[in-house]
Amino acid sequence: MINKSYLKKLLKKYLNGDITDEEQGFLMEYYDLFDDKEISELLSDEERERVKHKMNKAIWEKISTVEKGKTLAKRRWSLKIAAAVIVLMIGSSLTLYFFMDLPGQKEIFASEQRLVALPDGSSVLLSVGSEIDYGSFEDSDKREVYLNGEAFFKVERNPQKPFIVHTGKIKTTVLGTSFRIKAWPLEKDISVDVSTGLVDVSDQERSFGVLKRNEGLVYDKNSGEVEIKGHSDEFDKSWQTQDLFLDNITMKEAASLIENRFHVKIEFKDEELLTKRFSTTFLKGESMDELLKILCHFNEAEFHFDGEGNTVTISKL
């Protein structure tokens, strides 16, 4: 008999990323039961999808590492067999190796609206319940991100390394621009909306064309049909009416958020402050003074308004 209370506790720990190797091994033994009512009733639909997504990803990444280039199709391993193989390794000296994250790989889930700084200087504003996976971008000729949910991207231009967002069958490719993607697993449509620059959208077989500023696209996952339309800037501004968790972002990026929210200009007296990184939460009801105090507190700086209150100068203490 499964101890439901204990299993639910482990599932929550797994989703939060603070599970031990032994506990993760226990969960892997129950992988093939996650569609059964006894297990599925412990989680919401969204949480169940996230658990299976994470386990699928862990299993196939570790198998791919061991295979070192061999074609998995030739081996004809099923996912269930692969999971069983990994479970059998629990307790051996290989356990730690098999459950380590790949070098530079990050997986981020937004339990609240969250601004994430990417390794190349780009940023992603994640809607609640969304998730992204990405690597370091260093050892590749492209910058690839995998998205489940809804996010607004601001991409640093780099003609030598295209920025690619994968959402199921859809691939969105840019060099440097800002755009929104909405791709929830349980919804039938994937939508892409461009705020600035140019974005190429395609699936595995064809390109749907290049979208420019204020253009959008809706892709029907069932029929494969595509509709080109104008886009709304509603998501671009949604952060202004919600709490926002800032995840390892620079002072420059945080200052830009404050400028947009309060229609002021922020200048930095010391350039080295621009690249200082920190993490905090901007609450929706906080005043500009309160946000500036938070910004400066974490970065050993101070701020001053000009005579008319339209410009803020930030300098080192």
Automatic annotation (TrEMBL):
Membrane-spanning intervals of the chain: 77-100
Classification via InterPro entries: FecR, FecR_C, Ferrdict_sens_TM
Single GO term (MF): sigma factor antagonist activity
Signal sequence region: none
Coiled coil (residue ranges): none
Domain FecR protein: 111-199
Location of the Protein FecR C-terminal domain: 244-314
Keywords: Membrane, Transmembrane, Transmembrane helix
UniProt cross-references to PANTHER family, sorted A to Z: PERIPLASMIC SIGNAL SENSOR AND SIGMA FACTOR ACTIVATOR FECR-RELATED, PROTEIN FECR
Protein name (record): DUF4974 domain-containing protein
Organism of provenance: Flagellimonas olearia
